[in-house]
Amino acid sequence: MSSIVRQPVFYPVSVVFLDDSADFLHALRGFFPNAHTHHFFTSQHEARAFVAAHGARGASHSPLSGALWSEFEKRGGNALGQDAMADANRFAQLAAIVVDYDMPGQDGLEFLASVKEAMQDANCTRILLTGTADESHAVDAFNAGLIHFYLKKSDPGMTRKLAQALANAQRKFCAGHGHIGVHGVGAAYAERGTVEVLQGLVQREGIVEYYWRPEQNAVLTFDAAGRAGVFLAWDARDWAAQCDVVTDEGGPAALREEMEGRRIMPVFWPNEAYRPGMARVEFAVPQPVPGTQDTHAGWTRIDGLELAPEPVTYARWLREQRGA
Fold it and tell me: Which member of 43, 114, 210, 256 has the greatest number of CB atoms within 10 A?
C-alpha cells in the first residue's frame, strides 16, 4: 500500500443548474429537491455571480499553517491535508455545474469558459446537457477537457444518469477535502472492504456526513438530525497497539481480555486509546471486514459525549439557512 492514504470524508455539497428553460428546471427540481444545496438559474448573469461567490470557497485554506493546523500535526503526527470540518461553509462549496449547451447569448461551453477563473477547485465537475444536434460539440469539449460529462436531454434515462453523475461528483469533491494519512496512519480505513462496510453503515443508519479524525484515528459520523456516531476500523497492528495501551496505562485486565478476543471495540472518544480515569466508554461490536486478515470495523452512537469545539453539522447548517 502507498505510504500516502486518502482517508474517508463525505458531506453534502452544492450544485448549480443553468438552463434558459424554466419548465425544464422546474422538472429537475422534482428530482433534486434540496433547496439549500441545489441552485437553479435561468439567468447566466445570476449563475455567474453565484459561481464567483462560491466556486473558490474552501480552495485556499490548509491546516499546515496558522490556527487550522491540527493538534495532531503539532504533536508530530502523520496527517496532512485539509480539515473539512474546519470550514463551517463547506456545504455551500460548489462541487458540480450542470449547464445546458443551447442557450441564447452564450452557449453552455462559453459560459463555462467565462467562470473558469472562479472555479479554482479542480474537483468541481462540469456537466453539459445537449440536444441531439449539439452532441458533436459536447464530444469535442469532452475530448478537450472542458467538461467531465455530457448527457443528451432526449435520453430517456437522462435524470437517472445525471443523478449518478452528481453522486460521483460529490464523492470526488469530498475525497479531495479531508486529511491524508501518511506512513500507514489510519490505513485500515482506506481498504476497499472497510470502505464498503462504511457505505453499508451510511445507508443503514441514514448518515449524511462523515469525517476521518486524525487525533482519534476514527471516523466521526452524523445523521440528518445531527446525531453523532463513531466508526472504527482496526487492523492487526491497531488491535495490538490498543491492547498494549490498556496494559501500559493500568487499565482493567478484563478490558484487554475482551479486546484480545475481538468481542468488544471500545470507543475512547475524544482520545484515540485508553486513558486512566475515563468516565465513560462506549463500545462497538467488532465485525470482520471481508477480504482482510484481521481487520475489524464497528460503529456506535456517542450521544451525550461532548464534541469540542461544537461542529457545524449539516443539520445545524440547514437550521441556520432556514432562519436566515
Answer: 210
